[in-house]
Structures are given as C-alpha cells and as structure tokens.
Amino acid sequence: MNTLSTPNSPASEPLPMAWIERLFQRMHGQYGNVWLDKWRVGEAGANGQDLGVENAKRTWAEDLADMQGTEIAVGIATCKNLKFPPSLPEFRNLCRQEDDIEALFHKAVGEMGKRRKRQQESWPSNRLFWAAQRIGNDLLIYPYRDLAGRWKFAWNESVVDQGKAIPVVAPNVNLLENSSTFNRAEASKRVGELNIKTAQGGPRKWAYDIAKEPKGKSLMQIQMACNALIAFGEDLGQWPELVERMPTRREAA
C-alpha cells in the first residue's frame, strides 16, 4: 500500500482502481473470505469476477475520492484492531478520526513535558510520539488554537511511523526537580567535558554562551537558546541556571 502515501486525484474523479485493488487485497488478507462475501452476489461479470465485488470496488473508488493517501492509510491501520470488516461508511470514519484530535494534542503536550524533565512517560501509541516530534518544541510553547492545523497534518502523516520505536530517555534522574543529583559544580565540569570546540567561534556559540551565563537575558533569548540546544542534541539539565529561567508556556506565548 505504499502508493497510498501520495495524494489522490481531484475529488470529482474516482480513486485509481489499482488503489482499490490493493485495498481489497489487504482486507481479504486480514479478514479472509468474510470480506469478499460481503459483496458477492453469485453472478460473474465479463472479466470473470463476481458482479457484486466489481460493483463494490467501483463504489469504494467513487466514495473515497475525496480521501488523501495518508487518511486511507490511517483507516487500514485502524482495521488491524477490528474483529469484523468495516462497511464503506465505517471505513470513512476510520480514515478521519477527528473527534479526539485535540485530546491527542494535550496528551502529547503532557508526555513531551515529562520527557523534557526526564520523568516516566506513558505514550498511548508510538504514532502519537512521532506526531509530536513533527511539531517539535513549538508543542510546548503554543496553545492548541495556534497549532491545530499543523497538529492535524502531523497526526495524519505520523501513521507511517506507528511501527517505529520511541527513543528511550532514561528517567532515573530528574534534573529539574532534584538539583542535588546535578549541582552547579558538576554542571560546570560537564560543560567542560562537552565537545563544544565546533561551537566556539562558530554559528552555535551564541546558544552555549547563553546557557553558561543566562543572567540578564530576555525570555525570548532564553527560549531561542533552549530550542537551539535541544536541536543540537544537548541535555538542558547540564545548565541548571538556564533551566530555572526557561519561560513557561504562558510566558512564551
């Protein structure tokens, strides 16, 4: 079903029959003859196929014409958890699961917040994690109303990553709440051990300078430095003073 990752033709035209053939093959592989028996009428058409199955394929091609490939992929993936094959209206609903999209957003915000603090995470699905990854740091900065469009797109796109593992972040030390496990002396030593040579005198230097001396910097500068350091793959817990001055979501918004 890899070809379903590209957008379909305009809504006025049916989906390519090649798509529908692959869809029906996938459903037959999952549900067996129960799938085909839903459509069979016992009369063969000109190509030897059952007339009912042929008619069902044409109908699905027409009624799914407004669907994007990523949406159809969502429907197929969701069917993995269904004991009985869906009807056409049921399949459309599986493709466009919008009723809980905002709830998923808030769940992702909460889990990403835990991840930043090195706390135990409880993602309901790998797909949700990778949807959050597509938004990046903005997820913890902007409210849902500002990210609704991007979030819906990220959620639809992330269906291709639902089988991809979530990278593990050790939750054994919470650097934001237990300063005794990472005091300023240790932080200073850790900074000295970092391979920052490429940053010194280079385009990354400004972020490390703010991290080492955040006093007097504006909230915007602090946030930009935090975003840059995360993008560089750094652990913000190395700079407790920077973490203490990180703006809250409300302040950043």
Question: How are the SSEs placed, and which strands pair?
Answer:
Blueprint: H1 17-31, H2 33-37, H3 51-63, H4 69-79, H5 88-95, H6 101-116, H7 126-135, H8 144-157, H9 184-193, H10 205-212, H11 219-231, H12 240-244, H13 249-252
Attribute tags:
single chain, 253 residues, mainly alpha, disordered C terminus
Largest sheet: none
Low-pLDDT segments: 1-11, 172-182, 193-201, 249-253
What's the SSE pattern? HHHHHHHHHHHHH
Class computed from helices, strands and strand pairing: mainly alpha
**Distance separating the two termini:** 41 Å
The helix content, as a percent range, equals 40-55%
Description:
The protein is mainly α and 253 residues long. It is built from 13 helices and no strands. 52% of the residues lie in helices and 0% in strands. Helix 7 packs across helix 8 (144-157). The radius of gyration is 25 Å and the shape is elongated. The model is unreliable at 1-11, 172-182, 193-201 and 249-253 (pLDDT under 50).
